[in-house]
Amino acid sequence: MNAEAKNPNLLTEPELMAWLGYKRRLDLLVALRDLRIPYALGKGGIVVSTVQAVNAGLLGTDGVRMESDPVEF
Fold this sequence. Notes:
alpha+beta, DUF4224 domain-containing protein
């Protein structure tokens, strides 16, 4: 497999930050959790997700935005 090949369904951390409007990794992680978007942490803590995961998080099963539960710290 070509190391340069990129899965078109995979969203990298810079792409997620650009899509969601965040500049800091921690802010991105909080937003992903609040939106219930599944993600994985790669080597060095790099955040990755998929287009499908973002779509599912932003849209409910009926195509309506789901409300997030409050985050407690």
